[in-house]
Design brief:
It is a single chain. The chain is mainly beta and 359 residues long. It has a domain of 31 residues. The protein has 1 helix and 34 strands. The strands form 8 sheets. A 7-stranded antiparallel β-sheet has the order 19-20-21-22-23-24-25, with no helix packed on it. A 4-stranded antiparallel β-sheet has the order 3-2-1-34, with no helix packed on it. A hairpin with a 5-residue loop joins strand 9 and strand 10. It is flat, with a radius of gyration of 26 Å.
Length: 359
C-alpha cells in the first residue's frame, strides 16, 4: 500500500510532535535535577553552655540549645532529653522543634525499620513513628532493628525478634551483633561465628572475635602460631580471604579497610585482596566516608583522600566525618567548629561539642 502525500505529512507531523514532547520532558528533568537540593532537613547537633541544640549548614541555630542530651534526626524526628525538673525523660521532637512523642522514656533511640528502641523501668521495647508501643518493654537489653530483625536479651541470653515482636532466633547466645548483609555475628562459650536470618549457623563458632559484614567481608580475630591475636578477613562462606596478620582492623568502606601493623602499631589501608594501598603511617585511622578519611598524625587529626594524599593538614585535637561537604573539628579543648574539604573554617568554633551533619 502506497502512502499519499497527506498521510506522509501527518506521519512527519506526528514524529516531530513526539520529538518535541520528549525534548521538553528531558529539558524539564534536567531543570529539575539542576534545582538546588532542599537542605532544610540537614542538621547537626551541637552543645553550648551544657545544653544541646541543632544547627543548619550555615551554622545558624534551627533549634536552640536547651536539651540535656540529644541524638541525630532520622525520618524527621529526633530523641531528646527534656528536663521536667523532676526526671530527665526522653521524648521526640521534629525539625520544627515541636514535641511529637511525649517525654516518658528512660532512654530512646532513632527510628530503624519503622520502630524505635525505648526503655522504661530498666526494660526495653519498641514504639512506632507516632509513639504507639508496638513491642512492649519486656527485654533486659536490646538493639535497634537492622534489616528487619532486632537483637534482644532475656534471662541472660540473646536472640532475635521480628517487627511483630516474635522470636525468629530463640535466646541462646552470650553476645550478638546486628544483621548486616543477611548475617549476624554471635558468640557462645567464648567463640564467634555467624548466623543467617532464620537462625541457622552459617559460619561455625571458631573465631576469638568478629565484626559485621561490610561489602562482602567481615573482620575476624584468631590466635596466630606464636600465641598472639591477629585480625584478618573472611567472606560469606567463612573462608579466610585475608590472613590474620594485623594488630587491629576496621570494616571495609568504599573498597578499603583501615588496619594496624603488628610491628609498629601504625595504621594504613588495604583493599579487598589484602594489598596495602596506603602505607601504615598513621597513629589512628578511620573509615572512608564520601571519599575522605580522618587520620591521626602525631596526635593531631587531619584528612586524607583515597590515594593517601593529605587534603586537610593534621592540626585538630579531634574531628568527625565529612557529610554534605562539612566536618566537625575540635580546635581547642572546648571549642568545636566546622571545616570544608579545603580545610577552611566555615562555621566558627563556638561549640563545646559538635557532631556530623545528618539528613
Amino acid at each position: 500500500m502506497f502512502l499519499t502525500m497527506k498521510n506522509i505529512f501527518l506521519l512527519l507531523f506526528s514524529i516531530n510532535a513526539l520529538f518535541l514532547h520528549i525534548s521538553a520532558q528531558i529539558s524539564q528533568e534536567s531543570y529539575t535535577n539542576d534545582k538546588p537540593k532542599d537542605t532544610s532537613r540537614i542538621l547537626a547537633r551541637v552543645k553550648v553552655d551544657g545544653k544541646w541544640g541543632y544547627i543548619n549548614l550555615k551554622g545558624n541555630f534551627v533549634i536552640e540549645p536547651k536539651f540535656h542530651f540529644a541524638r541525630d534526626f532520622k525520618f524527621g524526628i529526633a530523641p531528646v532529653i527534656i528536663n521536667d525538673k523532676v526526671n530527665n525523660e526522653w521524648g521526640y521532637i521534629n525539625t520544627k522543634d515541636s514535641i511529637v512523642i511525649a517525654p516518658k522514656y528512660d532512654d530512646a533511640y532513632n527510628i530503624c525499620c519503622g520502630l524505635a528502641l525505648v526503655s522504661i523501668a530498666y526494660k526495653w521495647g519498641y514504639i512506632d513513628y507516632f509513639g504507639e508501643m508496638r513491642i512492649k518493654t519486656e527485654f533486659d537489653d536490646a538493639h535497634s532493628f537492622s534489616e528487619g530483625l532486632a537483637a534482644v536479651k532475656s534471662n541472660w541470653k540473646w536472640g532475635f525478634i521480628n517487627r511483630d515482636g516474635h522470636y525468629v532466633v530463640s535466646p541462646q547466645f552470650d553476645k550478638v551483633g546486628d544483621f548486616h548483609e543477611d548475617l549476624a555475628w554471635v558468640q557462645k562459650e567464648g567463640k564467634y561465628g555467624y548466623i543467617s536470618r532464620d537462625g541457622n549457623l552459617q559460619i561455625k563458632l571458631q573465631f576469638d572475635n568478629a565484626g559485621d559484614f561490610h561489602e562482602g567481608l567481615a573482620r575476624i580475630k584468631l590466635e596466630d602460631e606464636w600465641g598472639y591475636d591477629s585480625w584478618g578477613y573472611i567472606n560469606k562462606e567463612g573462608k579466610i580471604v585475608i590472613q590474620p596478620q594485623y594488630a587491629n582492623a576496621r570494616d571495609f568502606h568504599e573498597g578499603m579497610a583501615a588496619v594496624s601493623n603488628k610491628d609498629t602499631g601504625l595504621w594504613g589501608y588495604i583493599d579487598k585482596d589484602g594489598n596495602e594501598i596506603i602505607p601504615a603511617n598513621f597513629y589512628k585511622a578511620s573509615d572512608f566516608v564520601n571519599g575522605v578519611a580522618r587520620v591521626n598524625i602525631r596526635y593531631k587529626y587531619g584528612f586524607i583522600d583515597k590515594r593517601g594524599k593529605i587534603i586537610v593538614p593534621p592540626k585538630y585535637l579531634d574531628a568527625g566525618n565529612f557529610h554534605h561537604g562539612l566536618a566537625p573539628v575540635r580546635v581547642s579543648i572546648y571549642k568545636w567548629g566546622y571545616i570544608n574539604k579545603q580545610g577552611q573554617l566555615v562555621i566558627d568554633a563556638v561549640f563545646e561539642y559538635a557532631y556530623d551533619f545528618i539528613e
